[in-house]
Amino acid sequence: MEWLCALELGSVPDWIQSIAVVAATAAAIRGLNTWRTQRESELAEAILTAFYRVRRAFGDVRSPLYLAGEGRTRPGDDHEPEERRRELDQYFVALERLQRYVKDFEQIDVLQFKARARFGQDAAKPFDLIRKQHTKIVVACQMVLRAATQGREIGEELRKISESATQSRSAIGQEPDEIDKAVAEAVTQVEDICRPRV
User: Fold this and answer.
1) Is the pLDDT of residue 7 over 60?
2) Which of 131, 141, 148, 198 is packed most tightly, with the most Cβ within 10 A?
């Protein structure tokens, strides 16, 4: 029974100090977790907002309706006949419209790396899908304009490639085309990743 008497519990101030240290540590851990959750929520919200903006940008860029004067920022040849200039300006409209949304697409690029770092490798997939659709539009426009500036005739096949990339069928009430579907899929994927975190 002597061993029971040898057990020393320490003084009350020592116990109070130990409890205070444990409580402070628990509060710090809780605060850190709250801060991480808040940052994750802010990132998820920023990603969702960026994707909604880009979805709207694709709708605008691919609208088959042209306003007077659109496409005129195309650097052209001063000796182009007016009819040829109007035709080529029409193929430049989508590129001109994309310029209005450069910051939105840049934001997507920046957020892709943050999403990958925070949410894992699969979080990059919708970003890649958006970038592919953007590239399809740019390449289609450049193909037509390059052919025209090299003096080649813009054939029916090249016109179809350009129209399929730059003109949304769903904008005129038809079935969504490949780009429309890919953009919608990217937004759905990002919503699945981000909504639970907001």
Assistant:
1) no
2) 141
